[in-house]
Amino acid sequence: SSRLPQTVLFRGSHWQTSLLAFRASLPVRAQPKKKKKVDPRREQAQKDRMKKKIKKLEKAAPEMIPIEDFVAPLKYSDSNRVRSLPPLSFEETERRVLLMKKWCLFKQKQDKAEKKAIQTLVEAQQEALKELRLESEELYQAAIRRDEGLLPFERDGPNYTPPIPGYDPPEGKCVDITKVYTQ
Amino acid sequence: MSAALAKVLCLQKGALLKQVFVLGRAATPRESRLCAAGDALVSCHRHYKSRPTHGIGRFKYLLPKEPPKKRKEKVQMKEINVGTEYEYGDVNIQMTSYDMCLVEHFAQYVHKLCNRLAVKVNESYAMPTKTNEVLFLEERGSKMQLDAVLTTHQRVVQISGLSSTFAPILLEVIQSSQPEGVHLSVREHTEADFKSRLKSRPELEELLAQMN
Predict the structure, then answer these.
(1) Residue B7: partners with Cβ closer than 8 Å, 6 or more residues away
(2) Is B198 close to A70, i.e. CB distance below 8 A?
(3) What Pfam families does its record include (chain A) (predicted)?
């Protein structure tokens, strides 16, 4: 009687019908076999679903972010905001017209001077290149090539006043509150 | 009799040209039925096509041709950078400033200048506006006080086919007329520049990250 396994005395579960087949008596067929068959299938199905979703999202064309500058705020389209200007005197209108003419003339001279400057620059450059060609063909070819160092070019605009010496700015910070658009 | 004749001709699957069929439309019904036999395989039983009233009610061919609806552009052009003349590819001239009118007028000026100097302008667009809140620390106290809300505006003029000898001249001219407070930046056009104009798609990116 000592040879008999312990399961004779305590039946672990009602599944343990036979004494010798100890481990096989448990419902082995159900849980672990499911993991072998359905898991890769389930993963595959999941991947397919994700691919479908990605395809659907990619089908929609990407949209441009709307530019807030080109959208006038609604408060400015209120009809109450109309100014009533007083009528101008004759001298005032004359003064304005003459000022406009002077400004036009000034801008015309400025524009002509700019065009002339560009033309002289281009002519001087062409002459220099011609002379260089006569001097040496190699240097001319190297000069014609594009300049790689030219392109990432940054320049700040000129300032009205130079920086104040010894200026102590207050401490602070800049917070970016741009509206983020998502599709 | 003509109907029987038409049927006989239909049964013979002759290889008459379709041009005969087209010409037959203007002719009288009897003649056109004979000609209609050219399209023997398709429609020998549809007599109405041979009638003079065929095509009545057609009007779309009279309307002016509409251009096909454009889809949102996804592809961007990239020129060959090294050529015999040594030209630059797509170049972006970016102007940034806090003052919108100034930057717009400067962009218009640059565009007109490029037109005048026969430099090809691909596009002239605006980048999205950035808003910044400037806070400063009060002299006596630890609270941050709102100083101003600044908006940064950026305009881009995209040119291409700039020759290497003319590029420094153009840059010189633009620099000389640069207004105060406008930051000028000239650089090559990249895909990242194009992508920064588009809306972000967090869901798509999440799914793509999960895939990989």
Answers:
(1) B44
(2) no
(3) MRP-L28
